[in-house]
Amino acid sequence: MSQDHWNFLFIGLSFALYIGIAVKSRAGSTKEYYIAGGGVSPFANGMATAADWMSAATFISMAGVLAVEGYDGSRYLMGWTGGFVLLTVLMVPFLRKFGKATVPDFIGDRFYSKAARLVAVVCAIFICLTYIMGQMRGVGVVFSQLFNIGIPLGVLIGASIVFFYAGLGGMKGITYTQVAQYCVMAFSYTIPAIFIAIAMTNNVIPQLGFIGEYTNSDPAVPFLVKLNQINADLGFSHYTSGSLSTIDMFCITAALMCGTAGLPHVIVRFFTVKNVKAVRTSACWTLSFIAVIYLTAPTIGAFARVNLIESLDGKNKEELPSWFAQFEETKQMTWEDKNGDGMVQYRGPDKIKAGEENELTFGKDIMVMANPHMAGLPQWVIALLMAGCIAAALSTAAGLLLVLSTSISHDLMKKVIKPDLSDKEEIRWARGASLGALLVAAYFGINPPSAFVAKTVAFAFGLAASSFFPTLVMGIFSRRMNKEGAIAGMVAGITFTLGYIIYFQFGGGKGHPEQHLFGISPEGIGFLGMFVNFIVAAIVAMLTPQPPKEIRELIDRVRTPGTNS
Predict the structure, then answer these.
(1) What's 61's DSSP letter?
(2) Is 249 within 8 Å of 242 (Cβ atoms)?
(3) DSSP 3-state assignment of 316?
(4) C-alpha distances in Å from residue 125, one per residue of 119, 121, 263
(5) How far is Cα of residue 533 from the mean position of the Cα atoms in its chain?
(6) DSSP per residue over 394-408, as a string?
(7) Cys-Cys with 170: which of 26, 33, 233, 454 at CB 3.0–4.6 Å?
(8) Cα torsion at 442, 406, 47, 397 (round to 10°)?
(9) CA 148: distance to chain centroid?
(10) What radius of gyration, in Å, describes the C-alpha atoms of the chain?
(11) Sign for the pseudo-dihedral over CA of 407, 38, 163, 388
(12) Contact 290, 54 (CB under 8 A)
């Protein structure tokens, strides 16, 4: 069979599985639509949460940025991993005891205010829309390469698929679809890594190959030594050293961590289990499932870096591998023979400063998909990886879409505008909101804030860090925090962060990193926005009346250790 036939076989089978599960698990009530009925087992929820968490930014972009940037790319690895630990320890058990199905629902009741709920809904819309833009971009990149079409058409195809099974099944359908998607992702990520590790290091365990010997040279040398050397030879910094400033690296990592702990689509996943004890068990399973991907990503990034350089640099047109033409056709990789010598010249900043030119351009997001081609892996392995790429983008997009739709249908329509809304009307509003949100997300997936998926997603984490994270922390642990403080903090935090991102991505600050506040890039500004939220909220709370007695007693009950919801 040809590569296209293998691709269509694997992806067709996976789509049939996802849609079949969505149809079979169709939600029949608002409880099933929002929290899958509250009876999902911790093991299944752990797998579904891992799939929800491992978006296109994780599956495609994280290894891609590690391949291109080396040590600097670890900001995503450390931020997202640490953030999930922070979420499960600091947030989820207490929110589950409170018993509200959405973050705006918690904020509205904890801060006894429709205005607070409304602000939370607006924050959720900004966060989820920004996040889903990145997922739609990832879907577009995958479909573009898969079907040899433009990224815009790829985005539209992916959006249609997500709307079908997310809008139809709600949380119940999404949960069991994500279990299947995790299985696809885990196999499609690890199997190619094992094949490449054997080919490059004679080691069946990719992580040991990463720190082992590179056997494709004579004599064999430590793999990391080889990696650093080929980077230095071409004018790039060593793979194991970084170029980002310390403060920017720290702020980006911290923003990703705190943003993770405030992500509404991950928090809501823990409401699908029976009680707080099940939440903790589910979190342990989730971390175990996430580790499978996160511990493999650095090896894939490093292997891809070596494969890219050895496959292309110094090759003439006749020597270029056949797969390069496929990526050139979709413009995911391009070569311009600037010096007219007929040889591919891939050069970094140091060589460019010395007068040489870089002739090879490619997107970081394509590295994971190109890696098995570069390594000469079997066609079925490449097809399996493509199925995993699509599963990663679709699983998170579906979870985000559900949060967006429930924020509008439940927290806005049911709780604020029309309290007498029936269950059927509420679900209709949710599905209508899903369609509207997907249309907006598809537009920005075609015209994204950044062509790099992980960077777009990082903006969403910054918005969550500056809005929800401080408000949730203070809502759980501060008896003195009142509605005035919470509202002022959320508005100040997200306004500061969003304004900074817009100015440096679209406004007068674009292309002027020297103007960054304290040298902090838009990816990391959410960490400062978080402190803006904390400080404004604390000051306003001190100047306004304390919460009612029943709210203070409620906080005490939520913080009391126990296993029941």
Answers:
(1) I
(2) yes
(3) strand
(4) 10, 6, 11
(5) 24
(6) HHHHHHHHHHHHHII
(7) 33
(8) 0
(9) 25
(10) 24
(11) positive
(12) yes
pLDDT higher than threshold 60 for residue 151: yes
Residue 497's φ and ψ, nearest 5 degrees, are -70, -45
pLDDT tens track for 84-105: 888 888 887 888 777 766 788 8
pLDDT at 528 over 90: yes
Are 338 and 158 a contacting pair, CB within 8 Å?
no
Token couple for 454: 């992980």
Give the count of beta carbons closer than 10 Å to the beta carbon of residue 225. Answer: 12
- Look-up: residue for tokens 């290091």? 201
Span of 259-273, 471-485, 501-515 with lowest mean pLDDT = 259-273
* Tokens read off for 311: 């496959």
CA distances from 403 to 123, 422, 564 (A): 12, 19, 25
Give yes or no for a contact between 168 and 175, defined as CB atoms under 8 angstroms apart: no
Neighbouring-strand partners of residue 343: 316
Contacts (Cβ under 8 Å, ≥6 apart) of 476 = 91, 94, 95, 555, 558, 559
For 284-305, how does the pLDDT look when each residue is reduced to its tens digit (9 = 90+)?
A: 888 889 888 888 989 998 999 9
pLDDT for 132 equals 79
The residue type at 117: R
DSSP letter (8 states) at residue 413? I
Residue ranges of domains in the chain: 3-304+375-559
- Please answer whether residues 440 and 159 qualify as being in contact, where contact means their C-beta atoms are separated by less than 8 angstroms: no
Which amino acid does the sequence have at 469?
Answer: F
The number of residues in the chain equals 565
Considering Cα of 282, then 524, then 137, then 64, what sign does the dihedral take? negative
Q: What is the mean pLDDT of residues 144-150?
A: 75
Identify the bridge partners of residue 360 per DSSP, sorted by sequence position: 335
- Using CB atoms within 10 A of its CB, is residue 339 exposed (0-12), middle (13-18) or buried (19+)? exposed
Amino acid (one-letter) located at 420? D
Three-state SS for 117?
helix
pLDDT in the model for residue 563 = 45
Whole-number Cα distances in Å, 373 to 120, 309, 380, 538: 45, 13, 11, 54
φ and ψ of 214, to 5 deg? -85, 110
Which uninterrupted H or E stretch holds 391? helix 379-406
Instruction: Just give the CATH number of 3-304+375-559.
Output: 1.20.1730.10
Q: What are the residues facing 134 on neighbouring strands?
A: none
Cβ-contact 166, 401 below 8 angstroms? yes
> Considering only CA atoms, which of 319, 20, 407, 41 is closest in space to residue 181?
20
- Residue 340 Rama label (left phi>0; alpha psi -120 to 50; beta): left
Distance CA 537, CA 449 (A): 30
Q: d(Cα 42, Cα 253) in Å, to the nearest integer?
A: 29
